[in-house]
Amino acid sequence: MARKSYQEKLTELREDVLYMSEVVMERLRMGLDALEQKDEDLAQEVIEGDGEINRMYLDLEQDCIDLLALQQPVASDLRFIAASFKIITDLERIADLATNLGEYTMDAERDLFPDVDVQEMGELTLDMLEDAMMAYDTEDTDRCRELAGRDDDLDEFAERASEIVVRDLIERELDSTEEVERILQDVSRLLLTIRDLERVGDHTVNIAARTLYMVENDDELIY
Amino acid sequence: MTNEQMTSSETEPTDDQPAPTPGTDGLTDTADSGGETTTDRTLLEARDLNVYYGEEQALSDVDIEIPEKQVTAVIGPSGCGKSTFLRCINRMNDLVDSARVEGELRFDGKNVYDDDVDPVALRRKIGMVFQSPNPFPKSIRDNVAYGLKVQGKDDGDVDAKVRTALERAALLEEVEDQLDASGLDLSGGQQQRLCIARAIAPDPDVILMDEPASALDPVATSKIEDLIEDLAEEYTVVIVTHNMQQAARISDKTAVFLTGGELVEFDDTDKIFENPEHERVEDYITGKFG
Fold first, then answer.
1. Which domains does chain B have, with CATH numbers?
2. B142-200 confidence digits (pLDDT tens)
3. CA of A8: which chain B residue's CA is closest?
4. DSSP label at B202?
5. ipTM score of the complex?
6. B222, B229, B274 ranked by CB distance to A2: nearest
7. Superfamily assignment of A4-216 in CATH?
8. How many whole angstroms separate alpha carbon B240 and alpha carbon B130?
9. Are the Cβ atoms of A3 and B222 closer than 8 angstroms?
10. Which of B223, B226, B270 is opposite residue A69, by nearest beta carbon?
11. Which secondary-structure segment (H or E) carries A129?
């Protein structure tokens, strides 16, 4: 095989990006579990684990820079490295959002808004992320295009959930200043949770968009 | 001077290196000085190295420490002295009447310009591959065996050594059934790998390469580049190239020579190509100068 060590480095990059995505998915799962179970220890673990993800990101960023500077990649190799360079940024941002879930857990009240199923929304985003990384791994462009449609569903879900929270807030009769304060904080956290999960979906579509560009040189999903 | 007349009394260990094993040719045997893994042990070292061709200075106060079993690339514009430096290492400049060398060039701690060093013996330990493939008009087998016979390593097991050298040079698979065919019948890339096999047959410590791929097409160049990286597992490779991208791709360390035979920067290759210390090096590698 021509340029053997270069090809090996490309393979390593792909494997390392996939590994990073597995760790990020695990953190997102832990963040959702912490939120659901009010598990502050688990939430703390997610928060403290963010540094590891940041180091992974910086290492992979350096790997991409080295490949660009030293190997002069062209054509599909260039697109693969450029796409990976962007995808690790999205993964790092998803990990930040998982960390947010941990932080919300640390001070959230529970079950004030039972009609908003944050866990269902979380499951949708996790499934999307898993599929996006599978598309990257297997260069499955059909899956990339399908993910964009699923993100529209997620956006609608987020919009409906936000409406429920706001409507409930308006209709709720609050007797004391303390109660107002408490529920406002909780509403704020819940809306932020919905927004963060919606953003995970956006980053997932970014990953699909870069994968589509990587495989087909098609920028249709990049916006 | 014959090998027997040479002494090794001037071979001295440096502070951080073990005492080398004395040889009969003024040089030392580095075979047991390290494993087959990459090390940072210095094998070649220049100190205040100056080279003149008549009145013209070709190298100016060069200080460098080249690590063992790594690929060191030497780059720079035409006339910067990079080939002169390479040829100093195995005293090929001795063949140029007007050349004068000052300073020290140490190979495993021993100055190769000491009076007791036999240049022919030195070149057994420091082989060289040139720009244009230059196989002899002999069979493939004899081309490789030549290196063993001339260099006194023909101990009767030539065929096995020929095959090993061809295998290390990533050529055996392609020529296995035609070892008696002429080396000149091979393609340019194969001829160059044959020359590499010839150079490594006597099992040297260092392989010097002077633009080894510049006369080859991209596919043959790729094979040579892969081979160079593989060779660095067993040998110390110093390669002169005018192709900066090639240096970036295959080397661990890069030395940048600029005008006047000045070694401006020597560092890890990724450092040189991502964040060089010197503005002149930045200008050269980005194409603003040279």
1. 34-134+206-285 (3.40.50.300)
2. 999 987 876 665 566 888 999 999 998 989 999 999 999 999 999 999 999 999 999 99
3. B226
4. T
5. 0.72
6. B222
7. Phosphate transport system protein phou homolog 2; domain 2 (1.20.58.220)
8. 10
9. yes
10. B270
11. helix A118-138
